[in-house]
Give the backbone structure.
Amino acid sequence: MEFKHPWIPMTKATEKDMLESIGKKNLDELFSNIPEKFKLQNDLDIPRSHSEIEVTRRIRDLAGKNKPADTGRVFLGAGIGMHYVPAIVPALAGRSEFLTSYTSYQAEVSQGMLQTLFEYQSLLAEILEIDVVNSSMYDMATAVAEAARMTARVKKRRSRFFVPGTINPEHYNVIHTYTEPADIELEKVEYDKKTGLMSLSDLESKIDDQVAGVYVENPSYLGFIETQVDEISTIVHDNDALLVAGVDVLSLGLMRPPGNYGADIVVAEGQHLGSPMTFGGPLLGIFGCTNDRKLIYQMPGRLVGMTRTEEEPYEDGYVLTLSPREQHIRREKATSNICSNQALAAVTAAIYMSLLGPTGLQQVGETIGYKANYTAKMLDKIRGVQAPALGESIWKEFVVRFENGTTVKDIHDGLLERGLHGGRILTDEFPTLGESMLFCVTEVHSKETIDELVQAVEEIVSQGGAQ
């Protein structure tokens, strides 16, 4: 019986038939036109092949070296956080009807997927208090970047875009990558070094008739709540610019939605809505805008629309509409090149939001806010520790500064030795904050684990570093 490789479909018989069809007897004859000096004369110096059992064992050994993040002992956030995902969410999102990277071009065979994406858009539009939401972006960073380009397209002959000085540096780099080729000038607005709030005086002094848009985050990347959103909105709109707001959807069970304070464009990270961290992806960019034709027609990505038959029995139909991506229209006229694969993350978010409902969203937001503020309060009681070190009001993330000579590396290493993972180290990103870390507390962190974290930090600080 002829040997058949488990992964390579080519057999000797198939190889022979293919060679005979082009008049060759063997592979040497097929490649006879290649000089001998260019041919490999000896075996490749690579390890021997392994069986499936050996490969599986090796991969499991490597994976076993990772420390699981779903134990509620990781306080690392910076935009991507550990949240509880109810079992029903992946069970439904993993159904074969949804688990595909195929874009729903053919409406006649894709009504289920299109309706789910329409519900996703509708749910977020209600939560954000914004009129129109598209069916997904890559992540929050690219959503902000697309928003910056969109403001310049809407506000023609304007080529400046402002971002807060406390923005995530990684997001800033993505925005810069998107805006530089479009000749959009990216500029940071100063912030108060004690409160973290955007400097209104700096914003007023810099904004002019060349500014297309201003980006504000609430909560901010550094965790504090931006309490001046109304004042910022007024300044931006008085100068005929567009206000872009970045939010955390889970916070909106407690906080004012961006549509309430005049945001023209809204962006957010959707990973928090039912998707695991998974080494940083896949993420989900949320993107919405007000019901302004100039904005809607310049919105990147895809929109799912609904129509209804005129006669009884009335039936709803769903279809992709206003899809200015490069696969649909001329490349030079496209507003984005967003791909299909984010649709599954959007479906996951729709399932998660439907499961929570308004009451559940509020409960999750309250739980996160209570636990984060409790953690900050307990850490702040430790001599030489300030929490929160920036801002007065926090919700999920907050800056912790160590002032007694203990370094953030001491804290980081000491916590790891105790089976805990601390926050993101900020010394390189924000050196003016000193020895600081950005901690993230969510609904998955128990009071026992939080108290253990506080005790561990107190021990490390009192001992002058990791032991």
